Fold each of these.
Amino acid sequence: MNWPKTHDSDYIIAGPCSAESRKQVLEVSNSLKAIGKVKALRFGVWKPRTRPGAFEGIGSQALSWIQEAKESTGLPVMVEVANVQHVKACLDAKVDMVWLGARTTVNPFYVQEIADALKGNDIPVWIKNPMHPDIGLWQGAIERFHKVGIEKVGAIHRGFYSYDSRPFRNEPKWEIALDLRQKFPEIPILVDPSHIAGKGSLIQEVCQTALDLRMNGLMVEVHPEPKSALSDAQQQITPDHFLKMLDLLVWRMPSTSDESFLKILEKKREAIDSIDSNLVEILAKRFALVEEIGAYKKEHGVTILQLERWFKIMEMRKSQGKSLGLSEELIHELYQIIHKNSIRIQTQVMRKADEK
Ligand code: PEP
Ligand code: MN
C-alpha cells in the first residue's frame, strides 16, 4: 500500500460520493484508472444523511462491486466507516483503507469503537475534520487511532459547516488544517474540495489553494453522470472534467535554489518584517490609549461601549480601506479583533477600579 509522505502533493483519491450500482462502480473506476494519476478509489457505501428519507447508500451489497473494481483496476479501494459493523464488513471485503466522515469525528464514542474494531489490522485510516471548527475533536480522533497501534493515520480537510458559508458549501478555514499540520507534522493531510466547494464549478480553485498550501493530495468526488447521482449531485464531476481539471492545476515547487530569486525574496521579507514590527508598536500604542480611555470613562461613570462610536469607527476604516484597495471583509475582521480586545482591556480597567 503506497502511503504519502508529508512533502508529497500528488496523493489523489477519487470516486463517487456513493456506490450506486455495479455498472456505475466499474465504469467510474475504469475511467479513473485510465487517467493514470489516481492512487486510490473512494466509495460511500453507508451514507450519513442529515435528514431521513434521502438515499442512505446501498449497504454491504456494494462491497462486492468495489472488490471487482479493485481487481479490475489494481487500485486500492477506500470506504467510509461509521460504526463497528461497517468496519467488520470492510475487513471481510478486503477494503484497503477506510475513512471516518465529518459526522463521525464529532463523536468520541464512535471514534473509539471504530479504533478498537480496527486494532491489530494494518489498515490505513483517514480522518475527516469534524463538522464544526473544533480542532480538539480532530486531534483526539487521530490520537485514538495512534493509541490502538494504527500507524498509518491521515487527515482529510473537508471544510466546516457554517450557517452562511457562501460561496462554498463548507467554509475552508485553511488555518485549522495548518494548525493540525503543526500539531502532527508527520501526518499527511488531503483536501476534499468536493465537500468544501459543494459545486463542480468551484472545485478547481479549492484544489489550487490546497496545492499552494502544500497539502499532500486531494480526495475528489467523481461520478460518470453527476446529474443523476443519488447523493451530492451538485458537487460531483465527470471523469473528463476531473482529467481536464488536473491538467489545469499548477503544481508549484515548495522552494527553489535560484540564488537571485532567494536574494530578492529575502529583501521583500525584510521589508515585511519591518512593517510588522511597526504594526505591533502601533497596536501597543492604540491599546495603551484604550486603557487610558477606560480609566477616564470609569472616572466619569460612563459605560465601556458607545454603540454609535463603534459603528462610526467601522464605517470610517472601511471607507479608508476601500480607497487604499483593501477589502471590506479584511477591515471588518481586523476591527472585530481590535474591538473585542479593546472591550476586554476596558473591562479589566473597570473591574480593577471597582475593587478599589
Ligand atoms: C463523503 O465523503 O461522501 C461524506 C459523506 O463526506 P463528509 O463526511 O465530509 O460530509
Ligand atoms: Mn459526498
Amino acid sequence: MRIRGISAPFDQVNYPLISLGFFEGETKLRGLSKALDGYINGLLAEIVGRKEFESDGDRISILHSRGKIRRILVIALGKKDEYTSDVLRSAAGRVTRRVRELEFTSFGFVLDQSNSLEDVQALVEGSELGLYTFDQYKSSARKPEVKEMGILLNDRTLKKSGQVIAKGQIIARSVAFTRDLSNLPSSDCTPSILSSHSMKLSKRGKVKVRVIEEEEMMTLGFGGVLAVARGSHEPPKFITLEYSGDKRGGSPIVLVGKAITFDSGGISIKPAEKMNEMKHDKSGGATVIGVIKAAAELKIPINLVGLVPATENLPGGGAYKPGDIVRFHNGKTAEILNTDAEGRLILADALAYAQRYKPQAIIDFATLTGACIIALGNVASGLMGNHPVMNQRILNAADRTGERVWELPLWKEYKDQIKSDIADIKNTSGRAGGTITAAAFLSNFVGEYPWAHLDIAGTAWTQDATPNRGYNQKGATGVGVRLMIDLLHNWKSLS
Ligand code: BES
Ligand code: MN
Ligand code: ZN
C-alpha cells in the first residue's frame, strides 16, 4: 500500500472514504475533525458523544455522505486516559480491513493535533498488518487491494512524517515476512526451504547468511540438533545470519530462534487434536530472521547475529528416544525423559555456539512450552533471564510496542528441579513450573553472558482464532519483531 502524509484542506483531498477515531465521552470536534465536519455538512457534530459510538476500541460505524467523500468510518478508541499507540495500531488494522471489505481502494485517515510521530508509525504498522493475508494457497480471486492511504496531519507533524512512514512500512513488511514463514505448512517450509528463504536476505549484501550442514554439526558437537533431527528424513540446518551495522566493530547482540519446522512430539508423540498447529513451531526462528531483515533495511547502527537451528521433530525409525543421553556443543549432557521437550535441546547448542561471538547480549525466541499458555494465556510472552537491566529494557519495549511481555522468576530452586541422576541435567521435570524449568535448562548454555529468553508459545499465533489485536488475524502474528526493533533502536551498552 502507498502511504503518504498530507495536510491539504478537505476540498482538495481526493479520497472517497475518510476514517477518524473518537474517544469515549468526547463531545467536541476540534482541529482536523472539525474541518472535515464543515466539509460534510455537520454529520459528525450530530453524532459525536453519542453512546452508539462508544465501545472498547473496536467498533466501527459507517456514515454515508454525498459529494467527493462518500463514506466516513468512525472508529471508537475507548477511554482517553487508557490510550496508547497500540490502541491506534489496533484500530488501524480493523479500519483497513473494513475499507477492503467495502471495496474502496484508497482512503484518508485523520490524525488529531495531539498525535505524535509514534502514533504515525503505529498507524502505518497497524494498517499494513491489518491487510496481511496468507492466501498463496487460495485458488479463488481475492478482494481488490487497498492501494493508498493518506494520513491527514497538521503541518508540524507532516514535516517529520516521511521518515516515520518509511520506517513503519519496513517494520510491517518484516513482520509479514515472519508471519509468512510461520504460516507455511511444514511440507513447504522444511529446514532446507527455510534456509533458502533466509538466503534471500543476503541478496542485497548487507546480511551474510551461512548454513551449517549436518556433517559440520557433527564436528561442532551439536548433539541436541542432531538428536532431534534423527527421527526425520529431512536434514537439519543451522542457519547463521550476520548483519554489521556498527562500523566500529562493536561486539554483537546474538538472537537465537527455535525453528522446529514441525513438532509431532517424536516418540513421546502429541495427541492428534491441534497437532496441525505445530507447523508454527518454527515461529521463534521466523522472528529472528524477520528482525535481522528489518534491522538491515533500517540500517540500525548495531551488530547482530541470528542463529536459527532448524529441524523437524518426528518419530521415524532413527528417532531419539526417552532414556537417551545427549551431549551438547559445550560438553554438557542431558537425559531425555520426553522427546517432546525438543526445543530446549536445539536451543542448547545454539546458545552454546553463541558464546563464540563474545556477544554483549544473547536473546532467544521460542514457542517453548505449553505451560506458558497456561500461565499467561495468549496475551503475553514469558520473559526469563539473568540480567535485570536488560529484562527491564525488554519490558519497556513491550510497553511501547504493545507486544506484551511478563517476567517469570528464574530462581535456583527451578535449576535444581532439572538435575539428573545419570547426566548433568534432564530435559523435563514434570508439569510444575514448566515454562521456568525450560528456561532453567537453557541457562546452562549461556555462560556468564547477559541473556534473555522469550517464550512465545501463547503469542506467536492466535490459537483460539480470536485475535485480541486489530492488526492480528487468525494464524501467525509475527510477535517479537516489533519488540526487538524497538529494543535495538533504543539500545545502549549494558555495562
Ligand atoms: N512446541 C511445544 C510447545 C507448544 C505447545 C507451543 C503448544 C505452543 C503450543 C514444545 O516443543 C513442547 O512440546 N513442549 C512440551 C514440554 C513438555 C514435554 C515438558 C509441552 O509444553 O508440553
Ligand atoms: Mn515439543
Ligand atoms: Zn516444540
